[in-house]
Design brief:
The protein has a five-stranded antiparallel β-sheet, with no helix packed on it. It is mostly beta strands. The termini are far apart. It has a single domain, classed as 7 Propeller (Methylamine Dehydrogenase, Chain H). The structure holds calcium ion (CA) (4 copies). One calcium ion binds next to loops.
Length: 481
């Protein structure tokens, strides 16, 4: 289907969208063309060394879901705060809106501290980063305040440095020390619209490996930053970040192809071997070979256009295939052709699209996907904005099952011990057995207080769920006591 020449907006695009020759690509590959992919590294390298969930979806391939045993008789064990919801107002383009709780992607960090306390850390719509004792829901440290709401998921240093990384709608991405009396900003970088396009927030979840931070900003720019972490003479953690590389994911040609400049990066980077992939709101998926990032070189080795806003984070399987999920807002010819859920083979540069699933508008509800899919035993599980949980055979692309979640299903599923769990915007947590992975079977549903919309992705640790609802509170769900 894609193996033909297509004329869009006056541009002739050769058969392979994988080798698009946008002007940006020339700009992005100043030194050389690298036509190779680093083979997959051992899983150990990609897994954080800290015990816990330290980043959105737990690892560099965004496929780590936490640990069990999951509750058989679930109940809400605490909520935070006890009475007053976490709310803040935020203004974009002179429109002010009140936001409460936390939402997309909003996954907390949960980690086992050296002092034995399991700590839950999350950014919220009250503009603060909160620190809670997982056992009690009490505060473990003073909150850290930013200048605007926090939509993304925080990252805890995967190598054990007492450092937290967080974006905010206030235009800064920050590195925060956790070894002081109060959480203390050590460094921050600003996203400016003047450097890029569209907006200046930071929603994506930073990926850290080998002292290097990979992150995209909502002005459409992809950043590679050397953190230079260390300790000072008094033993306090330090950073001395240096930007090694930055590149726009947009170009004049790409803007005319898409038809607008909403080319922000809201997804989180994916790292497969030596390549970091990032998707933008125009649906451009780019892979940067970062094996020589320390030299300031990161050539583009993959370039694919889905056709529409791709905010869901890309994931990959152990064979290096990439799964992407897009929204269905622009309703253009390209997204009609490519579909909204796709499997990509980055090694097949001439025709990387393996299969497509279409998620069209339904009953007046916008089509497409915001949730990040989950993988299990050759099946892909994808909540859709139209309110289904799709089960897709990853070999064939065949949808083997459809279950109702309720519309606006933006929370990303977790799969632990053969059970898939997912939050819904109808304010419920669901658990499904994958004993027959092609047809998930409902085990339980738990309504959350006031059935507030769950957009945030729960962090599941030792069978306990930590997540927020848009109604204003953060919850712990576990086995009824
Ligand atoms: Ca902003
Ligand atoms: Ca955003
Ligand atoms: Ca977007
Ligand atoms: Ca969108």
């Amino acid at each position: 289907m894609l193996g033909r020449i297509i004329i869009i907006s006056g541009l002739a695009l050769a058969t392979a969208y994988g080798v698009l020759t946008f002007e940006a690509q020339k700009f992005l590959t100043p030194t050389e063309t690298i036509n190779r992919f680093t083979e997959k590294t051992s899983p150990k390298k990609d897994e954080p060394k800290v015990s816990g969930i330290t980043m959105f979806r737990g690892n560099n391939t965004r496929t780590s879901y936490g640990t069990g045993p999951l509750p058989t008789d679930p109940a809400i064990l605490w909520q935070y705060p006890k009475t007053t919801p976490l709310c803040g107002s935020s203004t974009v383009a002179r429109v002010t809106k009140q936001w409460c709780g936390n939402g997309w992607t909003g996954q907390p960090v949960v980690w086992e501290r050296p002092d034995g306390i399991t700590e839950v850390i999350f950014g919220a719509y009250d503009k603060k980063i909160h620190f809670l004792n997982a056992a009690t829901g009490e505060e473990t440290r003073p909150s850290f305040t930013t200048g605007d709401i926090i939509k993304g998921s925080v990252t805890l240093d995967p190598d054990g440095y007492p450092l937290l990384y967080s974006g905010s709608r206030d235009n800064f991405y920050r590195v925060i020390a956790l070894d002081r009396d109060v959480p203390t900003e050590l460094w921050r970088i600003e996203a400016k619209v003047s450097d890029g396009v569209w907006n200046n927030d930071w929603d994506g979840n930073g990926l850290i490996e080998d002292d290097i931070l990979y992150e995209g900003s909502e002005n459409g720019i992809f950043h590679i930053i050397k953190l230079n972490r260390g300790y000072d003479a008094s033993g306090k953690v330090t950073v001395a970040p240096v930007q090694l590389f930055s590149a726009p994911t947009f170009s004049k040609e790409f803007i005319s192809l898409v038809g607008d400049d909403d080319l922000s990066i809201e997804s989180s980077p994916l790292k497969v071997g030596g390549v970091v992939y990032i998707a933008n709101s125009g649906g451009r998926i780019m892979g940067f070979d970062v094996s020589r990032a320390l030299e300031g070189v990161a050539p583009v080795v993959f370039d694919f256009w889905t056709g529409d806003d791709t905010d869901a984070t890309l994931i990959s399987d152990p064979d290096g295939y990439i799964y992407a999920a897009s929204e269905d807002e622009r309703l253009n010819a390209r997204s009609k052709e490519v579909g909204q859920i796709i499997k990509l083979d980055p090694k097949n540069k001439n025709n990387p699209l393996v299969w497509s699933v279409h998620v069209p508008k339904k009953g007046g509800v916008t089509g497409g996907v915001w949730a990040t899919p989950a993988l299990y035993q050759g099946y892909l599980y994808v909540p859709t904005n139209t309110g289904e949980l799709l089960t897709i055979n990853t070999k064939t692309g065949v949808v083997t099952n459809t279950l109702p979640l309720g519309y606006h299903a933006w929370s990303s599923p977790n799969i632990i011990d053969g059970t898939l769990t997912v939050g819904t915007c109808e304010g419920e947590l669901h658990a499904y057995t994958l004993i027959t992975p092609e047809t998930p079977g409902l085990i339980w549903k738990l309504p959350i207080k006031n059935q507030g919309c769950i957009e945030s992705t729960p962090a599941v640790w030792k069978g306990n769920f930590y997540f927020g609802s848009r109604e204003g509170f953060i919850f712990k769900v576990g086995q009824k006591q």
